[in-house]
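Hey, I'm writing a tutorial for new members on how sequence and structure tokens pair up, and I'd like a real worked example in the thread rather than a made-up one. If someone can provide the structure for the chain below, I'll link this post from the tutorial.
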Amino acid sequence: MTAPPGRRERKKAATRQKIADTALRLFLERGYDPVGIRDVAAEADVAVTTVFSHFASKEALVFAQDENFEHRLVQAVTVEPLIPALRHEISAMVRHCAARDRVPLRRMIGSSPALRDYENAMLLRYAESLATAITAEVDRSPTACRAIARFVIDAYAIARDATEPEAALEETFRMIEAAWDALDFG
């Protein structure tokens, strides 16, 4: 059993969340490009170095849940059966990112080349982490695991942007399940 986080860890997490919330509010109020790291630090009442100790870049401030999503995807690989476990995690990600209150954020990301590039790189990183985890867990070729991981991450992007996210997820995961089942590695 994991011990609950200590005071220091809770304080760090609270500071990180405060910075992320402040940045997102400022970006949505003023626009992404006009707001600088100094603005975020001042508004959050922390030093610029504190912002950078929690977030590697300005773009990372927009994707504060990034590490949590990646961790959950990798952890889902240990659950049987694999594809339904991944579908469950992708569905949770889609619900989070496609929620009505996230529309202004999605619009901001869509209008910023820097944020789109960051998100694309982030999704590629998810796919690589997921492929590594799948390869370590199952008896399939690394190529097959990498392809399935990419399909799973693409399912997220397709469903997140779809008019009917759940229907898009259902259709895409039927194809992923069929591809996984079709792999013959007896």
